[in-house]
Amino acid sequence: MKNTKSTLSGKFYSADIISLDQFDPVTLKKLFSLVPKMASIAKNAQPSKLLSGKIVTLLFYEPSSRTFASFAGAIKQLGGETIDILNPLQFSSVSKGENFEDTIRVFEAYCDAIIIRHPEIGTAKKAALIAASVPIINAGDGNGEHPTQALLDLYTIYEKYKKLDGLTGVMAGDPLNSRTIHSLIKGLSLYKNNTIYLLSPKELRLNRDDFNSYTEKGVKLIEIYSEKEIPKNANFWYWTRVQKERFKDKKTYEKVKDSFYLTSNLIKNFAGKDTILMDPLPRVGNIDMSVDQDPRALYLRNQIRNGMYVRMALLSLILNKK
Ligand code: CP
Fold this sequence. Notes:
It is built from eleven helices and nine strands. The chain has two domains: 20-145 and 306-318, Aspartate/ornithine carbamoyltransferase (Rossmann fold, 3-Layer(aba) Sandwich), CATH 3.40.50; 147-304, Rossmann fold, CATH 3.40.50. Helix content is 37%, strand content 14%. It is globular, with a radius of gyration of 19 Å. It is of the alpha/beta class. Bound molecules: phosphoric acid mono(formamide)ester. Residues 64-67, 140, 146, 149, 280-282 line the site of phosphoric acid mono(formamide)ester (CP). Residues 64-67, 140, 146, 149, 280-282 line the site of phosphoric acid mono(formamide)ester.
């Protein structure tokens, strides 16, 4: 039977991963302690056998480069196999009208875990209630959450600062629609004395329910609408694209899409020598290519690599009893 407890409390085996709400600092510490080992497995020519005999379904109703490939790579690095269902609306019996419940039940019968991405908020949770015997991992549900992205983002910050408390960060772009921002705020709210400046056009600020629920958890959120208000020497900048696919009204998208563009000049004026530059990617009109050369830019370096290592650690804990 799978672990259906609402919080993990350090127990990953057979657990669904739906939200950062399930985590606490001890649980994150346990996960992060495995990441260096996973990095060395990935660098080794021989795959490990930690997931030998395990099959994981990647059921992606929305496009993905990083999440899909890093999960697939993670499973293969650990000796497991994948069933890859990209675009089920076209390439599975969903195209013939099969309902969501049946789809989940069918893949549940063929594998040891299902990793699901879906455009509707709450779908991973719904899948977890349907699948009684295998864990479900949320790879992004609409503009809800993206918990495994937050795990790798938190690890990337931890790798730099060796702590996750007492930090100041800037999250720019689309706080309203960015599921990666939602999960990362929840992750940082597990630790004391964190302050996050949310830089966006007014139209894209967090919805008030989310703002209130995050601040109740203890994280300090400061909403700013101009680059001039960026604090000097923050620990990290987390730049996100405006999420075109979430806009019903394309006129509004056109109005806000290029609001905050990260340039070397902005970095020179506001970042410190240790400020790390992150982006969950894809980059779409939000970071100038010249920024890539800056050694503080981690989005195509540590952040990307950590995606696979953290997912390896997570899967090894979920799919192995010991
Ligand atoms: N960061 C992220 O979720 O990227 P993909 O959409 O390419 O998976």
